[in-house]
Amino acid sequence: MDDKTKVLIIYVNYNTIPDLKKSICSFSEDVDFYDISYLVVDNNSIDQNFDCLNKCTKHSVEIVKLDFNVGFAAANNIGIKYAKDNDYDYYLLLNCDTLVTTNFVKKLLYVIMSDLNIGLVSSRIVYNFDKKSICYDGGKVNSYKGSVDLQNYLCDYNRLSTSTIETSFASGCCMLIPTKLDIKMSEDYFLYYEDTDFSNRILEKNLKIVIARDVILYHTESVSTKKKSNLYSYYFSRNRLIFIRDNVFGLKKYVAYTYSILWIIKKIICKTFNIKYSIIGVNDFLKNKRGKRAGLK
User: Is 0.90 surpassed by the pTM of this model?
Assistant: First the structure.
C-alpha cells in the first residue's frame, strides 16, 4: 500500500455531536501506510461545541459550518468536493452514529485497492444495541417494489460467512470511494433514498459495489431523524416514488408505483408513518417537488 495514500472521513452532522465524538474516538488506526483526516459538514446544528472533537484524535478534524440544513446528499457533496480539491485519494462517508472496529479503514482500503473495477466498498453493519444483529449486509434493488431487499437483515452475523461479495446497493451509512471517480449524490432526495440512487450511479459506470463482510461497523440507527417523525414520513413516502420515477422503467415502473402506494398505506395503518405527512409527500411527488420542503419539521 502506498504510504502517500490520503483518506478523508466525511461526516454529515445535524445535532449529533455526542455521537460524532464517540465515532471519531472509536478509531485506533495503524496509519503507517496512509494518512487519515476528518471533515465534518454541519447542517446548521443548534449544538456548535465542535472543540471536543479535536480532543479525541491526533488527526486533523476540519469543520464546515453551513448556514442552513441543506440535507444529507448536498452536505456529502460538499465533503466530496473538499476531498477532490485537497487531493485525497479516497473518501469515506460515515454516519455520525457509528463505531468502527480495529483497522477499519485499512481493511477497506485493501479491498478497494485490490481491483480497479471496484467503485465503492462498504462493511458489514451491525446494530449497536446488541452487537450482533445485522443492519446491513448487502442488498438488491427490487425494481418491482421500488425498494431494496436487504440481505441477512437482523440475522446474527457470527453465524454467517465473512466472504467479500458484490452487491447492487450500498448503505449511505458507510461508503469508501476513490476520489478520482466523478460522481456525487442526487440532491433531489434531501433525506432518504439518496444512497439507493447513488448505488445505481456507481453501477451505471460499470463499476462494482463490494461488501467486505469481515469488516464490522456498529450503527445506532435514526439518531438525527427519528422514525415515525414528520420528516421520516414525508421524505420516505415521497422519495421512494421519486426513485421509481428516475430509476425504474417499462411495466416494472407501474408495478412498483402500485406496490409502493400500498406499502405506504400499510405503514400508515401500522402507525409507522404519520398519515398527514405521508399524504403531503405523495402529493408533492405528483407535483414533481424535489429537494428540501420548506417549513417541514
Answer: yes
